[in-house]
Amino acid sequence: MDRATRLALYRSLVEIRVLEKRAYDLFLQNLVKGTSHLSLGQEAVAAGFAVAMRKDDYTFCTYRGHAHTLARGAPMVGVLGELMGRKCGLMGGKGGSMHLTSVEHGAMGSYAIVGAHLPVAAGAAWSAQVRGTDQVSVCFFGDGTTNIGAFHEALNLAAVWKLPVIFVCENNQYMEYTPIREVTAVANPAADRACAYGLEKILIDGNDADVVHRTARECIGKARDGGGPSLVEALTYRTSGHSRADPGKYRPAGELDDWLKKDPVVLYRVRLVGMGIEENALRDIERAVERAVDEATEAAKACPPSGVEVIEKDVWADGGSSWRN
Amino acid sequence: MAELTYRDAVAAGIAQEMARDESVVFLGEDIGAAGGVFKTTLGLLERFGPRRVRDTPISEQAIIGAAMGAAMTGLRPIAEIMFSDFFAVCWDMIANEIAKTRYMTAGQIALPLVIRTANGYGSRFGAQHSQSVENWAMAIPGLKVVAPSTPLDVKGLLAAAVRDPDPVIFFEHKGLYSTKGEVPDGEIVDRLGTAKVVRQGEDVTIVALAAMVPKSLQAAERLAAEDGISATVVDVRSLVPLDTKTIFEEVRKTGRLYTVEENPRLCGWGAEIASLVAEECFYDLDGPIVRITTPHVPLPAADLLEDNAVPTVDRIVETVRRNAG
């Protein structure tokens, strides 16, 4: 990996970290309503894949999707604006935190029903196959998804049709509040099921951005060359609660501290310094990101809320919602 | 001009659109090599090849999800769900994902797709393979809903559905598959959202859908012969968008409205029409609006039971005679 790629990866990690913390602060200030699901602690999965993707590849993610949407290049003001219900939001406040979408950046939607987007990602991959492009589709989901039917339907279809899709399980150890191991028949909820679909078992350290990026490059390359789908399980940990309503009291004592020692942003920074990348270059990135998030926050705050005139818009392609003549 | 069965008109409609537009693809269970379990898709695999006509596993979520992913990335898929009853196993994909995506993304994602399905009673298949579920789809904002009653309408409305920029649920009635009708040669494209007056009368207006249209026509002939009651029969054809203009015009002429619905009683499509007529044509009515439906029961399997659960010609005649007298 060259220096520029490593710095791009670090920048993406920092952007996600700072933006997610800002999203949390804005909640505490009651500027963001509803719910939100942060990727704090899981940044390396989103960043590692996004940096390995081509501009015209497709990302599908879950309600924990701020990180993936941002990592594909969606503007910060659009992300924060959407969380705050402002006109400048990616969808003008129509979707909210759980549905961030930016088609022009290849972020094809955040899906809030567990498992629903796996077949959709397979469909986008099928479309690339039919149209004869070499685009790939990358689909992120949590460990809890591996126990829902759509996961298995999508994996089977993708394998049978040899679709250019990479399914990425972010195993953050908990399905909402319940430890995933307590409700799953196998130790590795995604990787141990790969053999059921004739796929290779791929179990990686999801907190190591280089490992994620290398895996992403291999799987994407294989899919682009017609080698079919992959299923990746990335082991990670969310250091915040499931959603903003969750203080995470179910964690055993010491578990969070152990994982904080494997913080993906800190780990990567230490590695880059160890490789001889100068502190200043890293500090420049951190300062630039802080500034960008501050500016996006102020811009989103200054933007007016979405007006009621949009309530009945965009049900149909004609822009309206009429169901009768 | 050729005489086609309703069944043949399905394949003719799909073939017309696949020949015209390379982006139209077709997927479902047993639709290719087998030609469809109702033989509605014979010859399509041979003519258009396995790239565009795909047999799928029994995975309804994967079928509908794949259609959605393909539709948002440049294709115009037609997906078949073998029996409309199976909508229940992929209802998340239809109701939560497909119906809402354009709205939630403020128009970023378009979903030009058609979901075809075999709907309705008459095959002695019992309660899980015989339902009329147009009203399920009608209740969800973001879905267009069509249910033709003749071979000509099948071909023309199917073409219109494929060309429509929004998701269309296309209900074929399996009790009508063997019925025949004249279909002109050459390209046929109808318009969604248009009802048809299929019999003009003076005394009462009967509004019906799909298999209830021929029954209502038979009832109208008997009412004319036996009671001297002259009935208008309107084939609704499209529930969303709904042609209230035609329905209101015909109700205003006669002052009496009967709906004939195959669905169980509660929240059937006729309830919405009755409500609209009560609100907007109240002073044109000469008597109460009367809904003729299946009782609020699951459909039984035995021939005598099934035939008498859904509205019969006798029941339509007797109900109109009693109320219109």
Short description:
Chain A is α/β, with parallel strands linked by helices.
Observed structural traits:
heterodimer; A: 325 residues; alpha/beta; Rossmann fold; six-stranded parallel β-sheet; two-stranded antiparallel ribbon; 10 helices; 41% helix; 11% strand; B: 325 residues; 2 domains; seven-stranded mixed β-sheet; five-stranded mixed β-sheet; 11 helices; 14 strands; globular
Give a description of the structure.
The complex is a heterodimer of chains A (325) and B (325). Chain A contains 10 helices and 8 strands. The mean pLDDT of chain A is 97. In chain A, strand 3 (137-142), helix 6 and strand 4 (165-171) form a beta-alpha-beta unit. Chain A is α/β, with parallel strands linked by helices and 325 residues long. In chain A, strands 2-1-3-4-8-7 form a 6-stranded parallel sheet, sandwiched between helices. Helices cover 41% and strands 11% of the residues of chain A. By secondary structure, chain B is an alpha/beta fold. Chain B folds into 2 domains: 2-183, Rossmann fold, CATH 3.40.50.970; 196-324, Rossmann fold. In chain B, the strands form 3 sheets. Chain B has a 7-stranded mixed sheet with strand order 3-2-4-5-7-6-12, with helices on both faces. A 5-stranded mixed sheet of chain B has the order 9-11-10-13-14, with helices on both faces. Chain B has a two-stranded antiparallel ribbon with strand order 1-8. In chain B, helix 7 (212-227) packs across helix 11 (313-324). Helices cover 38% and strands 21% of the residues of chain B. The radius of gyration of chain B is 19 Å and the shape is globular. The interface between A and B is large, with 49 and 50 residues.
* General shape of chain A: globular
**Could you report the average pLDDT of chain A, rounded to the nearest whole number?**
97
* Biggest beta sheet summary of chain A: 6 strands, parallel
**Structural class of the helices, strands and pairings of chain A?**
alpha/beta
Oligomer: heterodimer
Structural class of chain B: alpha/beta
How would the global form of chain B be characterised?
globular
Give the number of domains of chain A. Answer: 1
Compressed to H and E, one letter per element, the order of chain A equals HHEHHEHEHEEEEHEHHH
CATH level-two architecture of chain A: 3-Layer(aba) Sandwich
Supply the number of helical segments of chain B.
11
